[in-house]
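My main concern about presentation is that the manuscript never shows what a single data entry looks like. In essence, backbone conformation is discretised, so a fold becomes a row of integers matching the chain in length. An entry of this sort, consisting of the sequence and the corresponding backbone structure tokens, reads as follows:
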Amino acid sequence: MKNILITGGAGFIGSHLAEKLLGNAENNVIVIDNLLNSKSSNIEHLLHYPNFVFLKMDVSSPINLEGIKELDRFKIKFYGIQEIYHLACPTSAKNFDKYKIQTLDANSLGTKNICDLAVKYKSKVILSSSSVVYGPRPADGHYFKEEDLGAVDHLTPRGCYDEGKRFAETAMATYEQVFGIDAKIARIFRTYGPRQRLFDGEMMPDFILDALENRDLVIYGDENFKTTLCFVSDIVDGLMKFMDAPKGAGPLNLGSSQDVKLADIAKKLIEMTGSSSKIIFKPPLMFITHLGIPDTRKAKELLGWIPLVTIEIGLKQTVDYTRAHKAAL
């Protein structure tokens, strides 16, 4: 059996990752999440698995897995932890100010705690970093390569996240250099799909629910706001392939290289749902910015990974999920 730890595992990407890992009966999956801006309902359907344990914990606090009774059956003291996916970090767009200290802690204290665990158990570890480390979308529109040096103003109100992710990457690289652990950095670009938070500025889930209710679809920007969108199952697939890649691989971009206008996505959703909604534009939110486009050639060459889910198929799956869960949502 392989013991796998996911921090932030009750979140959007983390819950899908946990679900996919449990598809292999030889994986024991441990999820740590403080439920600050994630939901226990994302993983409720996984609780019946005998090889799954959820721990409501803050990754920024000291972590002693061997002292937790619920994990006795995984025999961590003897078998250790083989893989760690470090996804824990608040990403609330509308409530960004509310979670600034927690964001700072997750990127600094949390990352150090996870690196210490990786050293203790000699486990492989992946940091879920972000496209924000590259800075804003470049004026010439070139795609970001992993070798590009980012330009981030570390003193802005967003600094705890943007510079925090850069620090987290530095922490991973330093621990690899000093202790020789297998530490990898995944730079994830905008992702969408079922289980995204509602009414939190994510826009995509709000678009769908509002379209189903014939309410206005709100874009926090103008009609030219562009972004890339990668379906969550493709990101999960990329993370798992990356974990199995040779030591020293990365950093690695994971995302879609297809640039799309949010207004076009909103129109498509209105058509798909048969809605009478209209599209309106509001001033941008601090956490929703014009991010760049990833150059994903390295992921293709190293992992054989490319996004497989088209926008049309991904939107349909997300609409179907939202429609089925609309009452609960």
Q: What stands out?
A: The first helix runs from residue 12 to 21.
